[in-house]
Write a structure and sequence with these properties.
Chain lengths: 504, 175
Amino acid sequence: MDIFASFGHGLLVAMQPENLLYCFIGVFLGTFIGVLPGIGSMAPISMILPLSFYLEPTSALVMIAGVYYGAEYGGSIASILMNIPGTPSSSITCIDGYPMAREGRAGIALFTSAIASFGGGMIGMVVMAVLAPALASLALNFGPAEYFAVILLGLVAASAVSNGSPVKGVAMVVAGLMLGTVGVDITTGAERFTMGIPELRDGVNLVVVAMGLFGVGELIVSIKANASGAHQTDIDYKQFYPSRAEWKSIFNPILRGGAIGSFFGALPGTGQTVASAVAYAVEKKLSRNRGNFGKGAIEGVAVPESANNSATQTAFIPTLTLGVPGSASMALVIGALMIHGITPGPRLLVEHADLFWGLVASFLIGNVMLLVLNIPMIGLWVRLLQIPYKYMYPTIIVLICMGVYSVNNNVFDIWLTLAFGWAGYLMRLFRFEPAPLLIGFVLGPMMEEQLRRAMLLSRGDPTVFLTRPISGVLIVITIGLLAYSCVSALRARRHQRGALRSAE
Amino acid sequence: MMLPEHPFTKGNAMREFLLRLRRSEDAASPPHAWLGALGGAGLLVLSVVFIIGGIKLGVGVPRRLGTGAFPVITGIALALLSVAIILSDLRDTRDAETPDWISFAAIGASLAIFAVVSDHLGLMPAVFLAVVVASLPDPSLRLSGKLILGAIISLGCWGLFIGLLDLPFQAFKGV
């Protein structure tokens, strides 16, 4: 009953007019950016980060979360209509969504994706409400060694499991940790790597890193990708609501997708894309309609959308209860909270119960808003896809400049954003992922502090990380994960080479 | 990559130039993946800087880790990883992505102009010029269109950030 009482209290918090407003701004902006192909939820979250500094922490968190799951709703629109995923995690939705649109069933596909996202979101919210307090009470016994081990596991999971080379992913995390050391050392007060620049004494600004790597970096990539112009499918709005048989056939897939999604969402490093891919594969095995998958099966739209949206909700569980973000977006959530002086961790649920339960309840409200935005107002987003990108991207670049400038009223930050933007583009060119770098950057100072504390408490004995049971188990899991991802990457490469050879 | 063909209007040398530049960029064969090794080499340099800098700052003793300890530990880890990256990228035979240097330069210039102009002339001219420069790589928008877009966005920014949100920006400086 405790959960219900807390949830009810959270609902009161989330229903405050201010929080409702920022929730709406968040989900609206998220859908808006999600619809635009090639720009993920990172760019808008980093763009509203400076704005969130002026807000109450709860409003800020509700708004950022809204952008995050709003982008998942929006992302499927471009997937269905144009066969281009609006966000990476909606790429699975293309498989059946686009064929449905070509059959003239675009309306039904869009409706299904909205309702499945809603169902998945609700499942994810329930899982979060039940699981987060349990995990937090377990984490209350954590000391510095355990925290260090948990952060290490989170970092390795977030980098090694990502697509692409695990070595490059881990290298990016380490580079992020190093970037986090720039500025005044909080323990000794000595300046580190500031090169005598006074603006760097407080460290590199999180907004600058995020806007540069994701905002500017993604924008440069997207200019060419979007120049070819959008092709449109006409939507028959009369054929928008699924039939009774279709309703029946998507009900169970939504539940299964939501369950699989909430599991992968809560694990660090996997996130929505893996969740929707696994859920689709499982559904394809289970479904009686499996022959139709890939040719416009309605279940093939429902399952990945339910999974990726439930994963966006459960991603908050490790982020808020352990302070370990599973993805770059969640790293920004941690950054936003720390700017408000709130340290995510097991005590957050007790000390900031309003914030936690307000956020959980805002998922309900935000998802209802998204349902309204995505069903009666779908025409708005379809029209948005028709706006040529040549008008969009100069606007976005100006908004990035304004956002960065507004943080400190400081031109130096814009120059730094330029440097990170170019670096972000080059990283994509050389197949380095920028997301692990940001995660490392956010967690670096925390990791260093826990390391120092643990070493102090153990009187300089580094074996403490292995001899304390919880941290020992976590370190072993970390090493296992690292070994597994290296082996599977090597195997994939060998497979690729074999395929190349046989093609020749 | 497909670009819509546009009939050239007289005197629009800029657009013709851009279209040609785009085509030659598209026609060039994609660079080899060993370019990735350059990224690895860059990381190696970075790690050496951090190791040396960290040692200078002082690593302390295990019980009381010094200011430089964490940079040295992470620096050593990155050095090892970047050697592995260089080795594996040199052996990689796949093609790398085709770079888009025009957009790369234009977006960089746009940010740089915003930084310089907003500091000296104020927000409105900075937004206007940043938009115009950012839209340069798109040959499908005429120069007049770029100017109009710049004017509309700078008016919009003025309305949103100064009029509505009341942020401490100066629309014009030193005029």
